[in-house]
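Anyone else keep sequences and structure tokens together like this?

Example one:
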Amino acid sequence: MNRHFDITGQNSWEGFPNIAFGRIDYFEQIEDEEETFFLGISSVDIISLKNSLLNYQFLDLTEYFEDFWTLRFKKFDNLTKDQVLKLRKVEEWFDNIRLFHLILTGKKQDQPKIVSIFGQESLDTQRSDWMQIELSSTRSNNDEIEVKAFGGLFSEPNLVYLKKITHSKEKDKSILNLMFSMENWPNSSPSQIKNKLKDVNASYLACYDVGQGLATSLLGPYFSTTLHYDIGTGVYQNAHTRNSGLILCNSEDPPIILSHWDTDHWAGAFYCVPKSDDKVFRKRIWIAPRDLYVGPTHIAFAEQIIRSGGRVLLWNSSSSSKINIKLTDGRTLSLIKGSGKGRNESGIALMVENMNNHKWLLTGDVEYRYIFRLIPPLGIAAMTVPHHGAKFKSKSIHPGPNSGPYRRLIYSFGQGNTYNHPHVQCISSHIHFGWDHGTWTPPTSGHTIPGMDVLSTATRDSYLKHLGGLIVGWNSSPTPPGIPCSISKCNASLIQS
């Protein structure tokens, strides 16, 4: 396994890349006095990349990597000996390339420079072409932007400085797209996806306290997990928000819906696992959106899923933006593809509707305006707030609660996160659309346990850092079961309702 995924952070890649290839991972603006922004870049060390290609004697890159991704999606027992050897060679190569996550931290005066390099649309959509980044441990002048270089999901960063960033050469882009792109990966049809979800039971909804990330699941009548929706945790500069030692429910073998490819929505597949079986989530079926702008780390993660015995079913949504599945428990589960251009805005939302027309809505990071035409404006029994409570980019109608006395709005975030989630604007807008936030009263919200319609995994105050997992029903608050099922292969207690 690549050292970037080491859960201790002690065995992650050391140092930093002097020169790296990378793509935008995210762009977050913080409303502080200096108008700070964070630009995340998923990158690979150029020197290690080129040396490894020579060491592994990949003379014909097109042949090796096109064949690799074609073979990667086939059943192992259908491959020839030569094909298996080729797979093993590229797997070893994936383990030995130096992957880094770079976070450029700038102020208001730095934004014009960043916009001139990437373009405003790339920053808005968090999708960019391949870039070449040059870094140094010393700062030559005060205009050089500070960069935190993380050699692993949970490692401490090295503080370096941005010397130069340019668009990669066309030849390099072609090579990088061969290695780190979903372009040649097969799509899965709606019928294939429906077949994997038909046995889901949605008696209860659970949201786990994972820090600055998201991990939710649908539970059966006896609290066993029947479907995961995201399996994330805090990473990189928000790794400190993780719930230390948390092991998520793994007693059954349900599929995992990945709302989108942001790291804090899948890193729990490495961290929130039992020591006895650290591949337990990676060897599942993952249903995820096709994204042609992910970086090296995301592709290496997907390769880990398949290598571990799991499958990645990509939903392209070109023929339909909504898949409806009639469940055996009588409810209807819907996957809804966001209509936006960016990674967050084109993610997969999940809705469950019961026989009384009450709905649960799980949003991932997609804002309501990108799914609103495919969801009802009212009648929501429970809903996760998009993007951990981030500020909405524009005004839009929010789904409103049902008319009954029982409804739940869920905030999943980590105390002390660097983005200041949840944002006051997000809280205020939900209050406007009928969600009672109890003690969370703007402009100073989030410092207490909210009460009323709202459940949260944390507060802004360190003495209420982890509030614990929560469970939601359809018509009334269920009695929290503690450990979700009797098999007890986890410690992810559900203590709020």
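And example two:
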Amino acid sequence: MFVSPCPDQQSLDEYYNSAFAPIQTDVLDYSADNRVAFIKSLVPTRTNIDIAEIGSGDNRAVKLALEPICNSYVDAEINADCNSDLSSIEQMPHSSADIVASYFVLEHVADPAAFLKTCRDVVRKDGFVIVEVPDLYLYGGNPAALRWWEHTNHFSAHTLARLAARVGLKLVTLTHALCSRSFGFVAAFKPCETNQVLDVSHNQTEVLLAQSFVRQGLNGIDRYNRQLDIAREHILNASAPVVWVANSIAHDLLATIPKEGLTIIDRDPKKRDYIEGATVHDPKDAEDKIRQCDLLVISSPTHAQAIQANFEQIRQGKLPGDRVIILSVIA
């Protein structure tokens, strides 16, 4: 399934080049252990392997764990703030990597077939192309992938295998259990001649299933919007509300309400002007506001526990449970 109208690749590249790179913390928004386990399952006895990762972000834990079996680990990341080896996988020579991995990247690409063809060119004949994507079949329980405008394509296992087959990549294994995020699946492909790929032709049942799961996902977006409405009402009725983490959820939350009397916190200094009409403060610069706070809204469920601990340390006490709201797209 694809988005129409779709941003062109140049627009997407400009967006990702200037987007905020996540601050490196001890709390990852993915399972590094799962990524490592899946790679090791593909090459259980091999050493001195060459790995290329596209859209790498903070992959320090993965690189460290794979160091004993790696000859090289090349990062290709378009974001200018990331300290990557390359800005594009297209800069790598053909047949230069044993594993080419992309984790939750393909859904952001305007031409996914061309992207997979490049991965096939870079991987060696006996190597693997690893792809993680959101699973369209899981949208009913987690519609996060539907709310991102930059998600230009949506995949089930069948449609991803069909797309990969078009460029000479044969699906060899697929699992949800070792996917690094709970709302997706991870698949491994081997390069082959296109006539060697098993039949993965168009299936009308797949179309009907995709439509059903997308509708469930849209219902989840409705639930998310109702959650935002409730949080907005609490903010408007509070005397000293604090919203912690300036991200897309906070943007959705605050787009339509006045910002007077509201304190927004994020420790990334680049996000100072992230929310239109308001200044985003570092926690250290907002300690008085935190002590006066009568409503805490956390817009990152991944970091909620750490944020609450930081909030309570500064405040030297807790808010009542009904005065803490944790926003999430997940049902």
